[in-house]
Amino acid sequence: MFHIFQYQPLRLITQNSLSSMCLKLMLSRPVAFAQIWKSWFSSHSLLGKKNIILMGPPGAGKTTTGRIVGQKLDCPVIDIDDDVLETTWNMSVSEKLQDVGYEEFLEEEGKALLKFSASGSVISLSGSNPLHAAGMQHIKKNGIVVYLDVPTTVIISRLKSKGMDRIVGLSPGISLKDVLQFRKQFYKRWFDIRVLCGGDVEAEVVAEKVLDAVKRYQDSELETFISTRSSRSGRSTEDSHKLYFSDVVTQGLALDGGLFVPERGLPKFTAEEWQGLLEVTYTERAQVILERCIHPADIPASKLAEIIETAYGENFSCSKVAPVRHLAGNQFLLELFHGPTASFKDFALQLVPHLFAYCIPRSCNYLILVATSGDTGSAVLDGFSRLHDTDKQRIALVNFFPEDGVSPIQKSQMIGCQKENAWSVGVKSDFDFCQTAIKQIFTNSDFTGFLTVEYGTALAAANSINWARLLPQIVYHASAYLDLVHQGIISFGSPVDICIPTGNFGNILAAFYAKMMGIPIRKCICASNENNVLTDFISTGVYDLRGRKLISSFSPAVDILKSSNLERYLHLIANEDGQLVTQLFNQLENQGHFQLRRDLLGKLQQDLVAGWCSDEDCLAAIHSVYSTTGYILDTHTAVAKVVADRLQDRTCPIIISSTAHYSKFAPAILRALRIAEINQNPLSQLHLLSSYSALPPIHWGLLETLKKTGNGNHQVCAADMSALMSHIETLIQNHFM
Question: Could you tell me the CA-to-CA distances from 472 to 209, 295, 413 in Å, in that order?
Fold first, then answer.
C-alpha cells in the first residue's frame, strides 16, 4: 500500500492505476520514471508491510515529523488524533477529554486504537496512546515504534508557547512536569528505536534521523566486529562468518589472539543530543548511550533497559551512581566506588553478566575465565552471583589472582564473594602471568575443543579484553562531563582533561572512546605507579619489557606491565592495520619490546600524556589532601592526583577518576595518615578508619562483606599452564556434570 506523488493522508493509488501511470511515465519520461521507481523501491524495501509508528509526548513534533517522513517515503501518513480519534468521535480530542474525564478518555482512546489497522504507513500516535497497554500491543504488532525523545524542559516550553493547557492527566495539584515524567515509563516500555530530539532541531532533521534509525534497526549487518589482528585483505573472506555484539560478548577473545572492535567504529552524538541528556538520571544516560552501541537485534531496547535498571537501580549506594565532587581548584573527582564491591569495576560487572546471560545460546554451558590484579575479582564474582538461579546453573566463573599481589582486604573480598557458581584461585605469580595464561588458554584450540566435546562447556572472558566491559566505562566518562555542564561549571563544548590511574589501559581507552563519540575531552592523562612502562611508552614510543620486573606497590590494581587494551588503541590510530598490530604484539611476546613508527607516536601524543608516581609521593598526597580537605583518597586516586598536579596546565577543569574506595587499602591509608601501630586484621583496620569521620564515609557494603565471610577458604595454584588447565577441568566437572 503506497502512493507516489505528494503527501495526501489516507489516499492510496490502486495497483491497476499505478501500473498504467508507470507505463506512460516510463515511455514519455524515462529519467523521471527511474527517479520515482528508485524512490518507491527505497520506501518499499524500508517499510514493506510494516508501519513506522512515531511515539512521544505532546509537543514532540510527531505530526510534523510524520508528514515529512511520509513525503520522503511516498507512503500514507496517519495522525491518530486527527484521522482516527476525531473521526471516530465526531468531536475534537480536547472536547472529548473535557466531556468524559481522564480515565474514561484513556479507555475510549484505547478502544479506538484496537479497531485501527494499517500497513506500509507512517503513523503519528497521540501523546497518551502508550498509556493503554492493549492498544499499544495491537498497533506494535505491525510496526516499528520510534520514540521521539525530547527533553522535558523543551516540551514544557513548546506547550506553553502554544497555549496548550489541557493534556491527558493534567489536573489541580499535578504539574505539567509531573505528567510528562510519569508518561516516560510508558514510552520506554514500547519503543523499538529512540531518536534524540533537541530543542532547536528542525523537523526535517528529525525526519532524517528517524529514517536513519529505522534503516539501522532493519540492517544489523552494518554493525559487525573485527579482530585487531585481522588484515584488510582477509576480511572479505570472513564475510561468511560475520561477528556481532552477541558473538563477541560470548567469545571474548578473537581466535587469532586479537581483541574485538566494531568494524565501523563507535556511534557519534551531536552536541544537541548530548545536551539533551543533561537533565536525565545516570541510568537514562546509560540506556541512551548503550542503545547506540548495541544493535537491537542483539539486545532489544526494552530488554536493555531492564538490564541497566537491574545493574544500577539498587546495587549502588549513591543515587547519582557516579557523582562528580569538587576537590580543589580546577580539580574534580569522579567517584566510581559506590557499587557493591567499592571499585570502578562494578560499573561493567554489574551489567555484563546479564548481557552475557541474554546473549549466550541455551544449548551450552559456559565457564568464564577472569584474571585480576585486585578489584576485578570481587566485582566479577559479585556480578555473576546476582544472576537468576536458572542462569547460574549454566554459567560459572573462575577468578585467577596473584596470591601475594593484592591487598589483604581485596583478597578477603575475593574469597568472601565466592558463590555456588563462582570461585577464586590464587596463583603463585603476578597479574601478567595470570592474564597471559588466560589468553593462551583461549587460543589453545585442542583444550577448548576438548572441553566442548567432553563436557559441553565453552570458555568465555569477562576481563577488559571483553568488548562489553568497555561500554559501561564510556558511559561514566560522558556522564561526568555532562554533570559539570549541568552544574554550571562549564558550558557544553568547553574542554576538560581526564586523569586516570592506568594499568590495563581499559579505563583510559573508554575515556578516549567517549571523546570520539563527541564529549569534548582535550587530553587523557595516563597515571602510573613505579610500574611505569606506559609512561615510558607514551613518551618515547618504545614498549620495552626487557629486564623489567613487576614492582609490588600500594596501588596494586595498576601493578601491570602488559596493558592488553593498548592493542585496541594502537589498532585505531594505525587506521585498522591489523598486520601492523600483529607484528607489534608478536614482537612484544617473542622479543619483549616493540617501537612505534614516528607518525603513530605523533598521533598518540596528540591524545595522551603520561606521568608516574612513587609510593612515597602517593602516601604524601593522601595525607596532604586529608589535611586540607578532610577527604581521603584511595592509593590509586592518589597516584592520579600526583600526576595531575604535575601535568595539568590549569587552563581547563580536570576530572580525576577515583577508581576505588580507600577502605580497600586500609593499611596503606593508615600509614599515610601516620598511624604508628596498624592491626593486621582487616575488620579492625576499617573500624579504625571509620573513627576519622572522613569523607567519603567508610564503605559499609565492604564492611558487611568482611563481617559475614572472614577469610574463608580458596584454592591456590602453581604458576604453571598445565596446573591452571587442570583446575579449570576439575571445576567444570564439579559444577556442570
Answer: 25, 15, 23
| 60, 150 contact by CB (below 8 A) | yes
Written as one letter, the residue type at 251 is Q
Beta carbons of 128 and 169 less than 8 angstroms apart: yes
Question: What is the spatial distance between Cα 398 and Cα 381, in angstroms, rounded to a whole number?
Answer: 8
Reading the block at residue 154, the C-alpha cell is 523543551
Alpha carbon separation from 662 to 163, 185, 502, 556, 702 (Å, rounded): 54, 37, 17, 13, 11
Cell numbers at 536, concatenated: 615510558
- β pairing state of 496-501 and 521-528: parallel
Is 641 in contact with 625 (CB distance < 8 Å)?
yes
Q: What is the pLDDT of residues 44-73, one digit of tens each?
A: 457 788 999 999 999 999 999 999 999 999
H or E stretch at 128: none
Read off the pLDDT of residues 457-497 as tens digits, 9 standing for 90 and up. Answer: 999 888 778 999 999 999 999 999 999 999 999 999 999 99
382 contacts 349 by C-beta, under 8 angstroms: yes
Residues paired with residue 717 on neighbouring β-strands, in sequence order: 427
Helix crossing, 301-312 with 352-359: angle to 10°?
150
Cell of 565: 587494551
pLDDT band at 234 (very low <50, low <70, confident <90, very high): low
What is the helix (H) or strand (E) element at residue 542, kind and residue range? Answer: strand 542-544
Could you give the domains of the chain?
44-218 (3.40.50.300)
Q: How many residues does the chain have?
A: 737
Distances (CA, A) of 59 to 210, 212, 428, 680: 17, 22, 63, 63
Cell triple for residue 471?
A: 561500554
Give every CB contact of residue 57 below 8 A, 6+ residues apart in sequence.
Answer: 127, 150, 155, 180, 183, 187
